[in-house]
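=== RUN LOG ===
request id: a7f3
mode: sequence -> structure
chains: 1
length: 276
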Amino acid sequence: MSYRTELVPLDDRSKQLRRSILRMMKSADRGHLGAAFSLVEIMRVLYDNILNYRADQPDWLERDRCILSKGHGCLALYAILADKKFFPDMELDKFCEFDGILGGHPDSRKIPGVEACTGALGHGLSIGIGMAFSARMDNSARHIYVITGDGEINEGSIWEGAMSASKHKLDNLTVLIDYNKLQSYGSTHEVLDLEPLADKWMSFGFAVEEVDGHDVNKLKGLLAKKPFSRSQPFVIICHTVKGRGIPFAESNPHWHHQSRIGQKGFQQLYNSLDTS
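=== RESULT ===
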């Protein structure tokens, strides 16, 4: 793997969204911190700068679609949806509560702005391909974005979907890979090496770019280029750091999911984020 990144300092907006994630985790005393923190800048750029949507009309037909296929990273999605007023901010305090709408994986039947129920890994791309077909049949300009995890693309369904997307020349489909190099119990290199990842996607007929997944300006510049390649689906390999923003959690598989963190633990998380 030749791509190299330098950690860009987090600005106030990136920290604010991470505080919303910690707020939900504190309410439930659990959550996938590592998986959510590596996603923040990807979600932020999509919803701040790229996606065409109406928060007050979440079912508007001509909206772009954004599917978080790595559903365990849902805290990042919930943070940005609340920020954009898809649902009341107070719902963040009811994460995983019986009377709340925000569960441990996204549920499109309950949460405005969520496009698909995800969490069983490997399905989001196939759902997105169906949506891209639908947009083409409707002669619609809506674009489909699918965010996958790197461990998730071990799933065979991802590569079956990739072949289909390429065959049908779905240039209204963009896949973003949260490539933080860790999955639930180890590094992607140890569990099932993905490299050469860019070459794999090119061999499946995708146009491919790589980017620092925490560099907001680079993400904006790249995503603003669509259509990226006529008659080809597009994949962006986003090089990220699992747990980005909490130095002691960064690239630490122990923080893939945490529970029973406690008051003292959360204070350490907040303090560490504020000084990062």
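=== NOTES ===
The mean pLDDT is 95.
The CA atoms of residues 229 and 253 lie 36 Å apart.
=== END ===
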